[in-house]
């Protein structure tokens, strides 16, 4: 497949922030991606997040504790057909239990605008697409509906003192499943107010079929 770049216009795409020059904007990254030397990006090993980290470094995106990678959006790399990690679940549990509206949550803010960069399993660049809640309102609405559904399952598990499993929203766009690494030979359980929801960490993911529809081969 010939690599292509698709850019969605939006009010979210702005010039470099004058108050935070350390992080680029979505517009900055779109320009850099258009001329990026893709053959220089190494294929990731066991650590699937390594490619994203390498690309962020090459594009001038610093490591940060901020909710978003960029001033006004996220940068998401993924392997075609595989899930896309969004954020760890334990960070979101207080918001979920407080029933914070999706657009005000960490996940909602992260995903209101995102640049998706696709690769084949051989590490070939397939294309990049920018989506946001203005240019693609149906996508954002489906994310919101899936989030609400999943949150309901999480609250039920907490109220009934049961364990969570992989849970996918009705639009098959968003899901939660395990995402964890061992510390000193063991996993850290996912807990909320003393109740163990899982024997290891979990995270929100975009389902694999999303990438196949976003950039069809």
Describe it for me?
The protein contains 6 helices and 10 strands. The chain has one domain. Strand 4 and strand 5 form a beta hairpin. The N terminus is likely disordered. It is of the alpha+beta class and 217 residues long. 28% of the residues lie in helices and 22% in strands.
Low-confidence parts lasting 5 or more residues at pLDDT below 50?
1-20
Number of domains: 1
Provide the succession of SSEs.
Answer: EHHEEHHEEHEEEEEH
Q: What does the radius of gyration come to?
A: 18 Å
Quantity of strands, as a count: 10
Beta-strand share of residues: 15-25%
Distance between the termini: 6 Å
Structural class: alpha+beta
List keywords for this structure.
single chain; 217 residues; alpha+beta; 4-stranded mixed sheet; 4-stranded antiparallel sheet; 6 helices; 22% strand; globular
Topology record:
Elements: E1 4-6, H1 26-34, H2 50-59, E2 74-79, E3 84-88, H3 93-98, H4 106-110, E4 113-119, E5 125-132, H5 137-160, E6 167-168, E7 174-178, E8 190-192, E9 195-198, E10 202-206, H6 208-214
Parallel strand pairs: 1-5, 2-4
Antiparallel strand pairs: 3-10, 4-5, 6-7, 7-10, 8-9
What is this entry, summarized?
The chain has helices at residues 26-34, 50-59, 93-98, 106-110, 137-160, 208-214, and strands at residues 4-6, 74-79, 84-88, 113-119, 125-132, 167-168, 174-178, 190-192, 195-198, 202-206. With 217 residues, it is α+β, with helices and mostly antiparallel strands.
């Amino acid at each position: 497949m010939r690599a292509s770049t698709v850019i969605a216009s939006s009010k979210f795409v702005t010039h470099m922030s004058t108050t935070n020059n350390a992080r680029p904007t979505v517009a900055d990254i779109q320009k850099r991606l258009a001329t990026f030397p893709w053959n220089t990006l190494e294929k990731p090993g066991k650590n699937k997040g390594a490619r994203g980290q390498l690309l962020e470094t090459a594009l001038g995106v610093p490591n940060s504790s901020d909710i978003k990678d960029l001033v006004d959006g996220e940068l998401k790399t993924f392997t075609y057909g595989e899930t896309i990690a969004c954020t760890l679940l334990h960070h979101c549990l207080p918001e979920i239990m407080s029933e914070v509206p999706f657009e005000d949550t960490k996940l909602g803010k992260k995903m209101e605008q995102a640049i998706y960069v696709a690769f084949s399993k051989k590490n070939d660049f397939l294309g990049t697409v920018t989506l946001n809640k203005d240019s693609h309102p149906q996508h954002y609405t489906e994310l919101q509906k899936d989030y609400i559904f999943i949150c309901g399952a999480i609250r039920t598990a907490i109220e009934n003192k049961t364990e969570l499993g992989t849970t996918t929203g009705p639009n098959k766009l968003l899901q939660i499943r395990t995402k964890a690494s061992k510390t000193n030979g063991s996993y850290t359980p996912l807990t909320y107010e003393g109740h163990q929801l899982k024997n290891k960490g979990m995270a929100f993911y975009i389902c694999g079929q999303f990438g196949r529809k976003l950039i069809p081969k």
